[in-house]
Design a protein that fits this description.
Helices cover about 5% and strands about 35% of the residues. A hairpin with a 6-residue loop joins strand 20 and strand 21. It is globular and about 70 Å long. It has three domains: about 70 residues, no CATH class; about 210 residues, Oxidoreductase, molybdopterin-binding domain (Sulfite Oxidase, Chain A, domain 2); about 120 residues, Immunoglobulin-like (Sandwich), CATH 2.60.40.650.
């Protein structure tokens, strides 16, 4: 991240990285024309701007020689460096076609000036603010796994959690092609039939959305309003990625591999095709898969058919669906989903830290039966066997503990074996409430790395990695 001085010169990094001026080219909330300077050549890009409910304007700029920048407007028609440290820039943000540039400068597609693309700002809910219509629209397309589905070792495809950033692409398997290129000696294009003719393996893997638990934060970041069901476990079958990369002949300077899907849309005013990268070492893991099968059946459309990436241990944003391109890079990828989204950050201008591996978490099947609206449980004064699953992106889960008194005391649960290295483990714990009343049940997990679930979620601006302990309220009668 490079802070800019008041005249646009960078305080660190190459001296040519300089923003000259930005002038309005559309309505106040829309696309803006940018002039930048890279060496002696001037280039144009765009800024997608949005205005929040308090009249504050902010946006995402992408321009050659400038990078990918989160900026704020200082006057009605220009952007200038304010006295505070609000400007932050990321190098390498120029948008090049996938495969034409393997230096990492392959960010989201720039909008043409004046298009006025939708550009809702990232914001935090006001105190007491109810779920918004935009959040409801997201929740109607994406869905959590019902917690009673924890009874299944393999989550049925229709119950597995689902997050779709844009639209489910129209895919014709017979015409689908995967292109592997970038910093390789032998670029290749493969059909599904050719991929399926390669050696095949199956891994049972638990996947979890990085934003799982976001709606439980206070204040609440506005996005997909997950409670705690953004998870699922499936058998994924396909061909390992690593042999394909090695056969292509990796450039010795390669550092990352970028994965691009077919889903296309606009996010915070930036038009883009979904893309994420992995460090080369992660892409070369033997358990990273190009999967075409889920639970023994062809991938469903909503889960990435006909081809998706599966990287065990990483949060869901890395599991690129509808995979069309694999590009080897010699510099870190600077696309929107990599350097703007999926960051642990406290302030809007904070560059943040990247979201990577899944934190330890345990969930229980809520006992008894539920109230329709509140989901508070009702149980009888009889012996209960509390059950659930626990997982981590740094396996194995080594302990699960249960509290039946709101966290005042904890008892160890019995753990069963996991079906695979990165699959969740079953647990169970007996409970016999003898007195009528209201009980608060809680469960927490810890893993081999020594990490344990916190009592409550750690707040961050994007609502990422929230693995606070599960709370289930039960009325015993």
């Amino acid at each position: 991240m490079i802070p800019f001085l008041p005249d646009g010169r960078s305080a660190a990094g190459p001296p040519h990285r300089r923003l000259l001026r930005c002038t309005e080219a559309a309505e106040r909330a829309g696309s803006f024309h940018v002039q930048g300077e890279a060496g002696d050549a001037r280039n144009s890009g765009t800024i997608a701007l949005a205005e929040d409910h308090q009249g504050n304007c902010s946006g995402i700029l992408q321009a050659p020689g400038v990078g990918t920048i989160e900026i704020r407007r200082t006057t009605d028609h220009t952007w200038a460096k304010p006295d505070d440290d609000a400007w932050r820039a990321r190098p390498g943000g120029g948008a090049a076609p996938m495969g034409d540039d393997h230096t990492g400068g392959m960010s989201a597609t720039r909008a043409e000036p004046g298009l006025g693309l939708p550009s809702l700002p990232a914001r935090i809910a006001e105190p007491g603010e109810a779920i918004t219509m935009d959040e409801l629209r997201l929740a109607s397309r994406n869905h959590a796994m019902p917690l009673e589905a924890l009874r299944h070792e393999l989550t049925p495809a229709g119950l597995h959690y689902l997050l779709i950033h844009y639209d489910i692409p129209e895919a014709e398997p017979g015409h689908w092609r995967l292109r592997l290129g970038g910093a390789v000696d032998r670029p290749v294009e493969l059909s599904l039939a050719e991929l399926r003719a390669r050696p095949r393996v199956t891994h049972t893997v638990t996947l979890e959305c990085a934003g799982n638990g976001r709606a439980l934060l206070d204040p609440r970041p506005l996005s997909q309003p997950w409670l705690d069901g953004g998870v699922g476990t499936a058998e994924w079958t396909g061909t390992p990625l690593a042999p394909l990369l090695r056969e292509a002949g990796l450039d010795p300077a390669a550092v990352e591999v970028c994965f691009t899907g077919a889903d296309h849309g606009v996010e915070r005013g930036v038009e883009q095709t979904y893309a994420r990268s992995l460090p080369l070492a992660e892409a070369l893991r033997e358990d990273a898969l190009l999967a075409d099968t889920m639970n023994g059946a062809p991938l469903p459309p909503q889960h990435g058919a006909p081809l998706r990436l599966v990287v065990p241990g990483w949060y869901g944003m890395a599991q690129v669906k509808w995979l069309t391109e694999v590009t080897v890079l010699t510099e870190p990828f600077t696309g929107f989903q990599q350097v703007v989204a999926y960051r642990f950050k406290q302030e809007a201008e904070d560059p943040g830290e990247p979201v990577t591996r899944i934190g330890p978490r345990a969930l229980m099947v809520p006992p008894g039966f539920p109230d329709f609206m509140s989901r508070v449980r009702v149980c009888e004064r009889t012996a209960q066997l509390l059950t659930g699953r626990a997982w981590s992106g740094r396996p194995p889960v080594t302990a699960v503990e249960v509290s039946t008194d709101g966290g005042l005391s904890w008892q160890p649960a019995a753990l069963g074996p996991a079906a695979d290295t990165y699959a969740w483990r079953p647990w169970h714990h007996p409970w016999h409430p003898e007195v009528p009343g209201t009980y608060r049940l809680m469960v927490r997990a810890s893993d081999a790395s020594g990490r344990a679930q916190p009592a409550g979620p750690d707040w961050n601006r994007q609502g990422m990695g929230n693995n606070g302990v599960q709370v289930v309220d039960v009325v015993v009668r």
